């Protein structure tokens, strides 16, 4: 079991030389990406029709995950999932670089567990302490460093237990109207959403949806929706080459003028000034 530097910020234990396609569950890599210590503000991962399946836990910092048409802000204490055959890219916020732990896994059981326990089109679970998965895997590696079969036997049990916990965490918020609204906004921030449409889809009144959301998050759904759009705009301004007008159009603002005013109210500066501070 060898340790390898896969890029500037990644240290990983590589297990692929033990791989057998007939194994129902396999751990191919266990690693850490420490962009803080390496000051790696250029960290960026992108794959099309990925053959990689991974679990990634944000220990510190924040960033962005774009996967299969969804864009999600990922933050400290959250775990995100990279599924096989997905199109995705992810990267840390340059002003809040991340430290994350990750596993690359494979096997029919791995893929079926993800399908069974993760709802469709959900790739991120916030506020979920996944530390035990990674410390447990590393402890198993030390204990069974010369016996891959025993390592995988106990690693399979740990992974299955972890997925049950993930599902329980998601189910805990399953009947919470505020979190249903939040997920609807998080996964549709590029679109034109109305609280009326969300309320109708959830079979609640508009007033009840607004009241429940404000009680849980101390802001209205409309305020959160705008906040999410501005967070995405910040990401595009920092990392992309789109014009301000193109970003306004991409995020479904009425026009560039409205977008610029909204952006300034939220951040205290215009989009052009915000972008300039990252292009010095």
> What is the CA-CA span between the terminal residues?
43 Å
- The helix-and-strand class reads alpha+beta
CATH superfamily of the largest domain: Regulatory protein AraC
The biggest beta sheet is recorded as: 7 strands, antiparallel
Mean pLDDT reading: 87
What is the H-and-E element order? Answer: EEEHEEEEEEEHEHHHHHHHHH
* CATH architecture identity of the largest domain: Sandwich
Give a brief outline of the structure:
The chain has 280 residues and is of the alpha+beta class.
Write structural notes for this entry.
There is one protein chain. This protein is an alpha+beta fold. The protein folds into two domains: 2-172, Jelly Rolls (Sandwich); 177-276, Arc Repressor Mutant, subunit A. It has eleven helices and eleven strands. It has helices at 35-38, 108-117, 131-143, 148-172, 177-186, 195-202, 206-217, 221-239, 244-250, 256-267, 271-276, and strands at 2-7, 10-14, 26-34, 45-47, 53-60, 62-67, 70-75, 79-82, 88-92, 99-106, 124-125. It has a seven-stranded antiparallel beta sheet with strand order 1-2-3-10-5-8-11. It has a four-stranded antiparallel beta sheet with strand order 4-9-6-7, covered by helices on one side. α2 (108-117) packs parallel to α4, α5 (177-186) packs across α7 and α6 packs across α7. It is globular, with a radius of gyration of 20 Å. The termini are far apart.
């Amino acid at each position: 079991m060898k340790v390898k530097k896969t890029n500037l910020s990644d240290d990983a234990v590589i297990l692929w030389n033990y791989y057998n396609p007939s194994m129902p569950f396999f751990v191919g890599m266990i690693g850490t990406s420490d962009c803080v210590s390496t000051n790696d503000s250029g960290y960026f991962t992108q794959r099309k029709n990925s053959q990689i399946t991974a679990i990634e836990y944000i220990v510190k910092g924040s960033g962005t995950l774009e996967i299969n048409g969804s864009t999600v802000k990922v933050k400290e204490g959250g775990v995100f999932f990279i599924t096989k055959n997905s199109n995705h890219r992810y990267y840390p916020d340059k002003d809040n670089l991340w430290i994350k732990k990750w596993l690359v896994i494979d096997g029919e059981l791995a893929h079926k567990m993800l399908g069974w326990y993760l709802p469709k089109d959900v790739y991120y679970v916030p506020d979920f302490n996944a530390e035990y998965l990674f410390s447990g895997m590393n402890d198993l590696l030390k204990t069974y460093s010369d016996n891959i079969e025993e390592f995988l036997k106990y690693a399979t049990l740990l992974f299955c237990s972890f997925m049950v916990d993930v599902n329980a965490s998601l189910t805990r918020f399953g009947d919470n109207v505020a979190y249903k609204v939040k997920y609807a906004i998080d996964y549709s921030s590029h679109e034109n959403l109305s609280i009326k449409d969300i309320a109708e889809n959830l079979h609640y009144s508009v007033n009840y949806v607004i009241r429940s959301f404000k009680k849980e998050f101390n802001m209205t759904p409309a305020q959160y929706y705008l906040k999410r759009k501005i967070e995405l705009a910040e990401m595009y301004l920092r990392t992309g080459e789109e014009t301000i007008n193109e970003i306004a159009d991409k995020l479904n603002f009425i026009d560039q003028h409205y977008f610029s005013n909204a952006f300034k109210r939220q951040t205290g500066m215009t989009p052009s000034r915000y972008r300039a501070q990252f292009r010095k």
